[in-house]
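Lab channel / #folding
Pinned by the channel admin:
"Please post every new chain as: sequence first, then the structure tokens as a reply. Keep commentary short and put observations after the output so the thread stays searchable."

First post following the new format, from NK:
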Amino acid sequence: MREAKWEDYELIDCSDGERLERWGDIILIRPDPQIIWHTERKNPLWKQAHARYKRSSSGGGAWEYFKKVPQQWKINYKNLTFGIKPMGFKHTGVFPEQAVNWDFVSEKNRTAGRPLRVLNMFAYTGAATLACAEAGASVCHVDASKGMVQWAKENAQLSGLSDKPVRWLVDDCVKFVQREHRRGNKYDGIIMDPPSYGRGPGGEVWKLEEQLYSLVQLCIPILSDDARFFILNSYTTGLPPSVMEYLLSIMLKPGFGGKVSSSEIGLHVTQSGLTLPCGSTAIWQN
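Reply from TO:
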């Protein structure tokens, strides 16, 4: 299990399907369906939270505020700064467990001996993009949501990285990769963080387990001959890290060599001293 070391974020406790979290100075309670245990809520911050996201029995949910919360506030991870705000469907704009992967791509870029070209797909609010850019890479940041790409640009500005070579693109990731292949463009590193579920433009249901093989296959022609890494993230419970490791091994090692590893990623829980699993990552590197 890989876990990041934060100062501005803390998973204080977790019980009965909820996380008690500190985001800078703001305490939030958010749902997490994998927290199936019923431990005593001894920490007084359970009763002092600023807000809680409550799921609705009819689907969705809403934030319930107990104290005044800024519309947006900032947290830092090492040299990076992110804007945080409570969004619909419980999110805040950052997945803190992903910091272990930000550290990985930062190190790979710093030690490459040359500026790498990196493609960040399903790039959300840009944390991995900024980790690469801060370490000297030129990055192509692609996400289908215009709002998320704008948020990522704002995070770049907050982090003092607005002048770095980043292409910010609002686009369908699959269609973009297909065009890059036709154009003959290549990348030294690819970061892929696809959603578990989605809907296509015609309303068709997109399931990661069913699409992942073809998604990775699509990316192989745009990897450079001297490619350095390929990161695959998943929050799909039916897709364990060992399956993603097998997938990357059979698809990348024959043509590129290198090695593949996989692990769960998680967050340290202050109250119990244990680690809460928060997803899976498989990494090919050369």
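NK: The first helix runs from residue 99 to 110.
TO: also worth noting, Residues 83 and 240 are 31 Å apart (CA to CA).
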